[in-house]
């Protein structure tokens, strides 16, 4: 008995969060320097440098994240950085913490405060490069020898466009010192480091930067050493190119979905584009692997969806003069709600970029890395929208259930996950009406739209129900 008990304790203590367990989570991606401050820093600052966000500030604002319905966060790399590395991608000492965000104890206090609320913490990590852009490696720890790095060459746009992995793996990204993982010391140290980092701070998952820039065999070892859910970034929308990276890590950030969904909702494309997308992705990655992919509406590397340069599009053939309520900004908001709801409900793990809930609209890096403090408004329209979806996702346990397509044509795409039914349309100029006959609900079931739970309910009768979507709205039904 005592042996059993101590075994049990041991299992609890060393229990690591697997990709299966992550499936039901909903992740809030924040930039540590931009989310919350304990130092009373100004909300207006130079977005190209430190603005003063910190771990203590984050701890004070966990209600904001939890009430929004998220049960995981993804934070900026925590390691010591060269000057100006507010984003965390310019590492100097892999075993030191970035003091701009607080001490190592502050970071531990953050993880602990999150765990007390059952919020999991995913840390961003870099194993491709260090933060110096010269040939002086003296300050880098533990990689302070030139033999730890590739000889200098620069990755070109042409290398990225032609998927020239030979150059992408050994040359510098933005001039940053490129670690040579063929060097045994480098690989051994990186594996030792990631194991230490995860265990020291009790992280529940890692987001891996610049995955395509290191040889694939390294990532098998790195992922195993981390021992937690690993989701990698390959900044590319070509699913067949990405395929080779599915397997070495648990999952990829879902750039194919990002580009597909942006195009569909922004450009009023036919909704059955999603049917084609899922067929292709299933063929390419395998059905199993899609479940762990990170679905994102926006992130820190792309102009936000609501940014003027990429929104406000209305097709030439659509005349809106008879629909005065459909202004550019109204359509933009409908589109953004749609892509955000799609990421939160569709198969994969939602990773929603901070500021979405306040309709942030920043342009290219660093304009898309706005300060959030001063805007931590829990009553905004988009905050409530996201909150409603996260709550429905949790009460129906949708994240752990298969996605089944229920309707697909040019006007509507709909699916269920368990008892949650989600329907989307990119036809912002009209009402669309469909009869849904393929569904999992028993006769007489009342389904209510989570956004209007008391006024928009429908009943399953004669094996079917009627679905109305007005002007590109999203509806999510759950049984009453
Ligand atoms: C590199 O780091 C090692 C271990 O910390 C140290 O012993 C050595 O002196 C360093 N070398 C240089 C050139 O800084």
UniProtKB/TrEMBL annotation:
Cofactors that this protein relies on: Ca(2+)
Keywords: Calcium, Carbohydrate metabolism, Disulfide bond, Glycosidase, Hydrolase, Metal-binding, Signal
Residue positions binding substrate: 90, 129, 207, 237, 301, 369
Origin species: Paramecium tetraurelia
UniProt xrefs under InterPro entries: A-amylase-like, GH, GH13_cat_dom
Reaction equations catalysed: Endohydrolysis of (1->4)-alpha-D-glucosidic linkages in polysaccharides containing three or more (1->4)-alpha-linked D-glucose units
Enzyme class: hydrolase
Disulfide bond entries: 45-51, 153-171
Chloroplast found in the keyword field: no
Site feature location: Transition state stabilizer: 301
EC id: 3.2.1.1
CDD domains: AmyAc_euk_AmyA
GO molecular function: alpha-amylase activity; calcium ion binding
Record family assignment: Belongs to the glycosyl hydrolase 13 family.
Glycosyl hydrolase family 13 catalytic domain mapped to chain residues: 29-393
Active-site feature positions: 209 (nucleophile), 233 (proton donor)
Signal sequence interval, chain numbering: 1-16
Any Pfam family matching the protein: Alpha-amylase
Biological process (GO), any one: carbohydrate metabolic process
Protein name: alpha-amylase
């Amino acid at each position: 008995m005592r042996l059993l008990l101590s075994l049990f304790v041991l299992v609890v203590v060393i229990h690591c969060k697997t990709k299966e367990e992550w499936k039901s989570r909903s992740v809030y991606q924040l930039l540590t320097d931009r989310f919350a401050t304990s130092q009373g820093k100004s909300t207006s600052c130079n977005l190209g440098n430190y603005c003063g966000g910190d771990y203590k500030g984050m701890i004070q604002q966990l209600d904001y994240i939890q009430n929004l319905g998220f049960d995981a966060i993804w934070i900026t790399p925590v390691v010591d950085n060269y000057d100006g590395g507010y984003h965390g991608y310019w590492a100097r000492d892999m075993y030191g913490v970035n003091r701009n965000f607080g001490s190592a104890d502050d970071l531990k206090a953050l993880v602990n405060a999150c765990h007390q609320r059952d919020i999991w913490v995913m840390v961003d990590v870099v194993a491709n490069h260090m933060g110096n852009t010269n040939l002086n490696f003296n300050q880098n720890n533990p990689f302070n020898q030139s033999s730890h790095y590739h000889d200098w060459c620069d990755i070109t746009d042409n290398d990225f466009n032609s998927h020239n992995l030979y150059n992408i793996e050994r040359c510098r990204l933005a001039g940053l010192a490129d670690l040579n993982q063929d060097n045994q010391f480098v690989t051994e140290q990186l594996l030792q480091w990631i194991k230490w980092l995860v265990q020291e701070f009790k992280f529940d998952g890692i987001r891996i930067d610049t995955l395509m820039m290191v040889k694939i065999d390294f990532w098998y070892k790195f992922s195993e050493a981390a021992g937690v859910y690993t989701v990698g970034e390959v900044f590319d929308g070509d699913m067949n190119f990405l395929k080779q990276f599915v397997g070495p890590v648990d999952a990829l950030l879902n750039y194919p979905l990002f580009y597909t969904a942006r195009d569909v909702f922004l450009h009023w494309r036919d909704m059955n584009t999603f049917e084609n997308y899922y067929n292709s992705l299933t063929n390419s990655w395998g059905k199993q692997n899609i479940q762990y992919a990170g679905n994102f509406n926006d992130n820190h590397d792309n102009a936000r969806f609501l940014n003027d340069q990429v929104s406000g599009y209305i097709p030439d053939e659509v005349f809106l003069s008879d629909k005065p309520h459909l202004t550019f900004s109204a359509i933009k908001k409908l589109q953004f709600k749609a892509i955000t709801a799609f990421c939160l409900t569709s198969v994969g793990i939602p990773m929603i970029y901070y500021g979405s809930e306040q309709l942030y609209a920043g342009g290219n890096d660093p304009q898309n890395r706005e300060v959030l403090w001063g805007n931590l408004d829990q009553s905004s329209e988009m905050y409530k929208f996201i909150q409603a979806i996260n709550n429905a996702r949790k009460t129906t346990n949708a994240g752990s259930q298969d996605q089944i397509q229920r309707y697909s044509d040019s006007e509507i795409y709909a699916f269920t996950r368990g008892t949650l039914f989600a329907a989307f349309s990119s036809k912002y100029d009209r009402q669309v009406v469909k009869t849904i006959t393929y569904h999992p609900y028993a006769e007489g079931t009342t389904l209510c739209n989570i956004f209007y739970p008391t006024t928009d309910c429908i009943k399953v009768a004669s094996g079917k129900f009627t679905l109305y979507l007005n002007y590109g709205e999203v509806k999510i039904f759950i049984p009453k």
